[in-house]
Design a protein that fits this description.
Layout (H helix, E strand, L loop, with lengths): L6 E8 L2 E8 L6 E8 L11 H10 L9 E6 L5 E4 L9 H16 L6 E6 L6 E6 H13 L3 E7 H9 L8 E6 L2 E8 L2 E9 L6 H15 L6 E5 L14 E4 L11 H7 L5
Parallel strand pairs: 1-4, 4-8, 9-12, 12-13
Antiparallel strand pairs: 1-2, 2-3, 5-7, 6-7, 9-10, 10-11
Length: 272
């Protein structure tokens, strides 16, 4: 298929489902669903992801999108995020990477060699993100076989953070609401201090949100935020202004709340 200027492909990958969209920078609609496919996920995150490869082959017929740019957004459940304190006396990047590998193994119990990790955001309080090497290998194999130009592969929280952190107000925390999970980016003194993924009850109102933020602030030893700036489709009560605390919604693609999980992943973070 011949590609017009400004068009690209965005793939959303969740556990058990993938979604392919065409993005357009200059022409409406900005997003067009090209297809979705289900697959049986592997028992472990470091499997061979062969079933995912078969689903991708259905969505990306050979020769149809040769030369198109492809960006991939992963469900956060397929990745690992963790913070590493700077080792005392550390002067080299290798010192931080070694500390990150030890921290990863203590948190998750998986051998670090099965995961591809990269540091992110702020060298004063390093955060690391890891994705199974087998998953990356499957995605890159499919992209190469279909002659696609692979732009990036990133977890959803990292994608949202990279887009919105510059717009956060002083003292505000960052939030991402996906299905029934609220992922908080806890900030203090302008730095990201922690990333916390929390289950959201079906009847969660403004009171639940305020109490949750108070508890997380206490756990992290930072002040309670007066503002949560959020990506997603929260209950309307979350957005009601309150005297001590209120929630503000970042703009997200139109209709995102009605999409499947994989489709919301594909459309997260705007047009690539």
């Amino acid at each position: 298929m011949r590609r017009a200027y400004g068009l690209g492909l965005r793939l959303g990958v969740a556990a058990g489902k993938v979604s392919l969209w065409r993005s357009s920078r200059w022409r409406a609609p900005a997003w067009t669903l090209l297809g979705e496919a289900a697959y049986v996920p592997d028992d472990t995150l470091h499997g061979d992801f062969a079933a995912l490869g078969q689903a991708l082959a259905q969505l990306l017929p050979e020769g149809q999108y040769a030369g198109w740019p492809l960006s991939v957004v992963l469900d956060d459940g397929l990745a690992r995020l963790w913070q590493v304190d700077l080792p005392q006396g550390a002067t080299r990047l290798a010192d931080i990477e070694a500390a990150a590998a030890l921290r990863f193994q203590s948190l998750y119990g998986d051998p670090p060699g099965l995961w591809h990790s990269s540091s992110a955001w702020d060298a004063r309080a390093p955060f690391f993100c890891a994705v199974p090497r087998a998953l990356l290998a499957q995605l890159t194999r499919v992209a190469a076989a279909r002659k696609l130009a692979l732009i990036f592969i990133t977890p959803q929280f990292a994608r949202h953070w990279n887009r919105w952190h510059g717009a956060l107000q002083p003292g505000a925390w960052f939030g991402q609401l996906q299905e029934n999970t609220l992922t908080l980016g806890v900030r203090h003194d302008g730095r990201l201090r922690a990333v916390r993924a929390l289950p959201v009850p079906a009847d969660a109102g403004h009171g639940w949100l305020e109490q949750t933020l108070m508890r997380e602030a206490l756990l992290q030893g930072v002040p309670v935020p007066a503002l949560l700036q959020l990506c997603g489709a929260p209950p309307s009560l979350w957005l009601a202004p309150a005297q001590a605390f209120h929630c503000q919604l970042f703009a997200t693609p139109e209709g995102e709340g009605a999409c499947s999980p994989a489709a919301r992943l594909a459309r997260s973070g705007g047009v690539a």
